[in-house]
Amino acid sequence: MLFEVVSPVTEQVIATVDELDPVDTERRIVLAQKGFESWRKVPPGKRAELLRSFARKVEESIEELALIEVKNSGHTISNARWEANNVKDVLYYYAGAVERLSGLQIPVAGGIDVTFKEPIGVVGIIVPWNFPMPIAGWGFAPALAAGCSVVLKPAEITPLTALKIAELAYESGIPENVFQVLTGSGSVVGESIVTNPLVKKIVFTGSTKVGVRIQTLAAQQIKPVTLELGGKSANVVFEDADLEKAAATAPYSVFDNAGQDCCARSRLLVQESVFDTFMEYFEQSVKSVRVENPELESSEMGPLISGSHRQKVDSYVDEENVMFRGHCPTGTGYWYPPTVLRVEDKNSKVLKEEIFGPVVSVQVFRGEEEAILLANDSEYGLSGSIWTSNLGRGIRVAQGIESGNLSINSHSSVRYWTPFGGYKRSGLGRELGPNATDAFCEVKNVFISTD
Ligand code: TAP
User: Fold this and answer.
1) What residues contact 167, with CB distance under 8 A and at least 6 apart?
2) Residue 328 catalytic?
3) Which among 130, 262, 304, 382 has the fewest CB atoms less than 10 Å away?
4) Can you list the domains of the chain with their CATH numbers?
5) What is the reported pLDDT for 451?
6) β-strand partners of 448
7) Residue 437's pLDDT is what?
8) How far is CA 23 from CA 20, 27, 325, 378, in A?
9) Measured distance CA(215)–CA(213) in Å, rounded
10) For residue 427, what pLDDT is reported?
11) Which has the closest alpha carbon to 207: 309, 337, 80, 333?
12) Spatial contact of 247 and 278, defined as CB atoms under 8 Å apart
């Protein structure tokens, strides 16, 4: 069976891709197990060299990968280049980790203890449609470095860059069956991966609803899971902040990737004393966001991923609450304008649910304590920003907010050198950073008697 892939820019079919069934999936997982048995024995120096070779292949293909993503996902060309570069970067970074993977030697009574870090086995990596390249790379680069084989399932609507990356892996010399892409739906291919006993670890990025389902299924086999789930992050602006800078960058913290970003700061909290001044600056910057054909170098925001997703985003927007809007094209493409809402009801679903589109709601706070209370008034805890010129306040507020990734005077969320993940219903476990390979290793403890 084949399924069609549609471009959100042209609304045209741009590719047809294999739709695997449970039997195909099982067969590919058996091959991945064979791949694992040989890959785990590849000496560390050689494994590192193969990962560097894979990274070089990605590096040579940045433009091609970026253009595929623009067409398949509607990402702007500049973002798509960043995403392809990020895959290259994590491959180089974790190639460097291969030769540093080591256990401990522990003195104990009657002998010594040594610990070995052993690769866990076949790893299933299930990724969403919003950032197909980097999210896949954050899973497969450390997994391969640890000596695991990988079955990667992209979202059915955005499989094209994953398929290209699999080709590059093969051309770079990564042995057959060690890195495979399994295309098809989540309910069929995704669940077959999660429930297959040969798959020893799941890395899932996606909605909290599906994350709960995956954790429940994995629990039947006591299978470890890393979950990277939804978000509803706060952007907190204090009166002592550089208001112009905070307002000029705020649109990119929420409208980047058309708001289809788990780290989007979709709740803007502004201190009452500077509310009017800040909102004036913010309106100017929202209206200047260039929403246009994502292939253009000048484009800052492309369309939403699909017509049905646009309908869902729009269902959250009550015209009475709209403070102002940016511009977007009309006609072909799933366009939606950057939209700013003022919502008074703290229990409104606009403030509670992840809209996953270019929509931000604005709230007012009086002091630090209220800012923290409002920021934490969410079931999610993934990301967020704090704007202040008082570093002590910035740190106090960062300590008070329940979230896995915060930035002070910045909208940065992801740096591959540092751990990334969520509090509360935003996830379980951490990706990236120096310890990411540990999630793909078992620790074996061996006691050696000296008697
Ligand atoms: P989901 O609908 O949850 O889908 C994510 C992936 O899971 C897709 O590949 C999907 O396949 C697959 N899937 C669906 N049902 C499954 C099942 N029963 N068993 C196994 N796999 C299944 O999310 P989405 O709509 O693609 O992505 C948006 C969500 O991802 C948002 O909530 C966003 O916040 C979250 N997200 C989180 C992060 C981090 S790092 N925390 C990053 C990006 C996105 P098909 O789509 O092919 O059916």
Assistant:
1) none
2) no
3) 130
4) 2-229+426-449 (3.40.605.10), 234-415 (3.40.309.10)
5) 86
6) 112
7) 98
8) 8, 6, 49, 41
9) 6
10) 98
11) 309
12) yes
Helix axis angle, 62-73 relative to 132-146, nearest 10°? 130
Contact partners, residue 129, CB within 8 Å, separation at least 6: 73, 154, 155, 157, 158, 305
**pLDDT at site 204:** 98
Q: Looking at this protein, which amino acid is placed at residue 143?
A: A
- CA 65 – CA 133 distance, rounded (Å): 9
Which residue owns the Cα nearest ligand 1 atom 43?
262
228 is annotated as an active-site residue: yes
**Pairing label, strands 384-387, 407-408:** parallel
CA–CA separation, 441 and 443 (whole Å): 6
Q: How far apart are CA 388 and CA 219, in angstroms?
A: 43
Non-local (6+) Cβ contacts of 193 within 8 A are 25, 29, 124, 126, 151, 153, 182, 199, 202
State which residues of the chain have pLDDT below 50.
none
Contact 305, 356 (CB under 8 A): no
Cross-strand bridge partners of residue 235: 268, 385
All residues at 6 or more sequence positions from 49 whose CB lies less than 8 Å from its CB, including other chains: 95
DSSP label of 8: T
Nearest to 400, CA basis, from 232, 231, 234: 234
List the end-to-end C-alpha distance of the chain, in Å, as a whole number: 64
Instruction: Check the CA dihedral 243-245-248-253 and report its sign.
Output: negative
CB-based contacts of 240: which residues, under 8 Å, 6+ apart?
A: 388, 389, 390, 393
Helix (H, G, I), strand (E, B) or coil at 386: strand
CA distance 154 to 144: 17
Q: Which amino acid is at 189?
A: V
| Cα atoms in the Cβ-side hemisphere of radius 13 Å centred on 310 | 16
Q: Which two tokens stand for residue 14?
A: 């741009």
Q: Which residue of 262, 309, 414 sits with most ligand 1 atoms within 8 Å of its CB, as the best mutation to test the pocket? A: 262
The pTM (predicted TM-score) of the whole model is 0.97
Contact at 8 Å (CB) between 194 and 217? yes
For residues 104 and 151, is the Cβ–Cβ distance under 8 A?
Answer: no
Ligand 1 center from residue 128 Cα (angstroms) = 4
For residues 158 and 70, the answer to whether their CB atoms sit within 8 Å is: no
Q: Where are the beta strands (DSSP E) in 366-422?
A: 380-381, 384-387, 407-408
